[in-house]
Write a structure and sequence with these properties.
Layout (H helix, E strand, L loop, with lengths): L4 H14 L3 E5 L5 E4 L1 H7 L3 H4 L11 E2 L12 H8 L3 E8 L8 E11 L5 E10 L1 H38 L1 E7 L4 E4 L1 H7 L10 H7 L5 H14 L3 E8 L5 E12 L5 E10 L1 H25 L14 E2 L5 E2 L1 H7 L11 H7 L1 H11 L1
Antiparallel strand pairs: 1-2, 1-6, 3-4, 4-5, 5-6, 7-8, 7-11, 9-10, 10-11, 12-13
C-alpha cells in the first residue's frame, strides 16, 4: 500500500511526539510549523499557543547565561537562518510567566535546505538542563566556599605560626595507635631541630629532655593517660649544642569508644627567659637581704667624731650616736648615766650613792 503525503506527515508527527527531547520545527520565516509535547511542557505553552508564532513574538522571553535578556538576533533559529550553519550546545534561558525561576535549555538547531540551497525549515531541539545548572551552580558555590575557607585557614595558620613564634609556644599531637608524633614549627625551633632532619617520636622527645627530668616527664605522661587527667609540668631540655632550656608542657589525652587512649594533644612553652628572670630576682633579693642584715647589725666602719662622738651619715650629716643606732638597727634606746660620768657631772649625788656601798 502506497503511503500518501498526509500519512507521511502523521507518521512524522507521531515520531516527533515520541521523542523525549523538546523539538520545535521552524519555517524559513521563523514561524513554528510543528512541535512535540516535550516542547510544550518546556516552554509552558499549548500547541495552539506555539504553532504559527515567529521568533519576534513577545511570547518568547529568552535570556543569556548571565541572565541578561537575549537579543532577537541571538535566538537559535535566527542564528541558524543568518549563518546557514548547524548550531550546537547553545544555552538558552527561558523566562516562563508561570515560574519564578529560569528554565534552562541546551539547544541544537539544524537547517534543512531545498535543492536550490534555500532554507526550508530549521529543526530546533531543547534539552532541559535546569537541574544540571542548579547542581553546577551549587558545586561552584561549594567550591567558592571551600576556596574561601582554605584561604581563611591558610591565613589563620600563618597567624597561628606567627603568634606561636612570638609567644615561643608550639603545639603537638601524638597518635597512640601509630606512635606518630606531630610537632608544630615552633616546637622544632624551641628544641633547636630541623624538621627535615629530625623524625619526631615519643622516644626522640624523651631523649631531648634533661637526664635529671626525664623520668619525671615520662611518669607524668604515663599517669596522665592512666588516670585520664591532664598534666601541667615544667622541665628542662638539652639542645644539640648543649644549651639548656626550660619549658612548660601541658597535655590532655582523648579516648575512643572502647575507652582506650587514642590521641594526646599538648603545648610546649619556652619559659627559659622567665626562669632566668626569676633566678636573677631571687639573687637580687638575697643580696638585698644580706645588705639589710649588715645594716641592722651595724657591720662595717662607722665614722665617729673623736670629740663629740657623733656619727657621720651617708649624706654627710652628723647625728648623735643613739639617734643613728635607732635608725639603723632594731634596738630601742634608753638613756642613763655611767658611774664615771656621774662622778664628774654629779659629784654630790655620786658620793651619796656610792659612799654608802663602800
Amino acid at each position: 500500500m502506497k503511503m500518501t503525503g498526509r500519512d507521511s506527515k502523521k507518521k512524522l508527527y507521531a515520531l516527533l511526539q515520541s521523542i523525549q527531547a523538546a523539538v520545535v520545527v521552524h519555517g524559513p520565516g521563523t514561524e513554528i510549523i510543528t512541535c512535540n509535547k516535550a516542547a510544550q511542557e518546556l516552554l509552558g505553552l499549548t500547541e495552539e499557543q506555539i504553532l504559527g508564532k515567529k521568533a519576534i513574538d513577545p511570547a518568547w522571553n529568552f535570556c543569556n547565561e548571565d541572565g541578561c535578556p537575549m537579543q532577537l538576533s541571538d535566538y537559535p533559529v535566527n542564528r541558524v537562518i543568518t549563518s546557514k550553519k548547524v548550531l550546537k550546545n547553545f544555552i538558552v534561558g527561558i523566562n516562563r510567566p508561570d515560574k519564578e525561576y529560569v528554565t534552562w535549555g541546551l539547544v541544537h538547531a539544524v537547517p534543512e535546505f531545498s535543492s536550490f540551497g534555500d532554507i526550508v525549515r530549521v529543526i530546533v531541539t531543547f534539552m532541559d538542563i535546569t537541574e544540571l545548572r542548579r547542581l553546577e551552580a551549587e558545586r561552584k558555590e561549594a567550591e567558592k566556599k571551600v576556596h574561601e575557607r582554605s584561604v581563611e585557614l591558610a591565613k589563620s595558620n600563618m597567624m597561628l605560626k606567627e603568634a606561636q613564634k612570638i609567644a615561643k609556644m608550639g603545639h603537638w599531637e601524638f597518635n597512640l595507635q601509630s606512635n606518630a608524633l606531630f610537632w608544630s614549627d615552633e616546637i622544632y625551633r624551641i628544641f633547636g631541630l630541623d624538621p627535615q632532619e629530625f623524625k619526631a617520636s615519643y622516644e626522640a622527645f624523651l631523649d631531648a629532655i634533661h637526664p635529671d627530668d626525664r623520668d619525671l616527664v615520662d611518669q607524668a605522661y604515663t599517669e596522665s593517660v592512666e588516670k585520664k587527667k591532664p598534666y601541667d609540668i615544667e622541665h628542662r631540655i638539652v639542645l644539640k649544642n648543649g644549651e639548656v632550656k626550660w619549658v612548660r608542657e601541658i597535655c590532655a589525652t582523648e579516648y575512643d569508644k572502647e575507652n582506650e587512649p587514642s590521641r594526646s594533644i599538648g603545648t610546649v612553652h619556652d619559659i627559659t627567659d622567665k626562669k632566668l628572670a626569676a633566678e636573677e630576682r631571687e639573687k637580687l633579693i638575697k643580696e638585698l637581704q644580706n645588705a639589710l642584715s649588715e645594716i641592722k647589725t651595724l657591720r662595717g666602719i662607722l665614722p665617729i667624731c673623736s670629740f663629740c662622738k657623733k656619727v657621720r651619715t651617708d649624706d654627710g650629716y652628723w647625728e648623735q650616736v643613739d639617734v643613728y643606732i635607732h635608725k639603723h638597727s632594731e634596738a630601742n634606746i634608753s638613756h642613763g648615766i655611767c658611774k664615771d660620768c656621774m662622778k664628774v657631772q654629779y659629784p654630790e649625788e655620786y658620793e651619796a650613792i656610792y659612799s654608802k656601798s663602800v
